[in-house]
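G., before I forget:
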Amino acid sequence: AQSVAQPEDQVNVAEGNPLTVKCTYSVSGNPYLFWYVQYPNRGLQFLLKYITGDNLVKGSYGFEAEFNKSQTSFHLKKPSALVSDSALYFCAVRDSSSNTGKLIFGQGTTLQVKP
Amino acid sequence: NAGVTQTPKFQVLKTGQSMTLQCAQDMNHEYMSWYRQDPGMGLRLIHYSVGAGITDQGEVPNGYNVSRSTTEDFPLRLLSAAPSQTSVYFCASSSHDRIYGYTFGSGTRLTVV
C-alpha cells in the first residue's frame, strides 16, 4: 500500500535562512512524487514533481526537492526562505506501477517563516 | 480556462440531510478524484474515477457516493450527513498519464450540525 509521512507538523525558519520540509514515502513500485502548497483558505497549488531522471528537481518559487531512493525520501528545500513562503506544504506519492492513478498525501507540514 | 470548478464553496447541513457537491473540469482530463481535508490528517482520498462510467473507492468512502456519467463532471453525494463529515472537500483532476500533477478545485467547506 502507498503511504507518505511528513514527520514535522511545523517547521520554523528565519527569513533568509535555508529551509527543509521532510517527506518519506512507501510504494511497492517506483514512485511518482509531488509537492503541493496550500495558502490559507485556498486550494492546493502544484510546486514540483519527481518522475524519473535527475534526483534533484526544481520547481516553482525557488523550491527544489531531492529524491533519495535508498532512504525513500523526497525532502523539499529552499536556499533562502521568504516570509511569503509561510503556508501548509503537502508531499504526495503515486505508485507508477498502478494504473489507478491514486495520489496519496502526507498529513502536511506548516512552514512558518519569521522576519 | 476555468480548470476545476467546485460548488458550493460553503454549506451547512443538518444531521441526516443529503446533498451533492459538484465538481466540473474543462481540461478533458480522464482522471478525477475527491479528497477531504481535516486538521492533522492531510488529504484523504474518498473516491476516484479513471474515466466516464468508472469509479472506485479510496481510503475513506463510507457515507459518500459518486458517479461519472461524463468526462467533465464528478459529483460527490452525501447520503445522510453526519457531524463526522464536517470537513473541507477538494476535487482534483489529471490527464491520462497522470504525471503532470493534479489540478485542484478551490474546495467546499461543509459543516454538519
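The mean pLDDT of chain A is 92. Chain A has no helices and twelve strands.

More on Monday.
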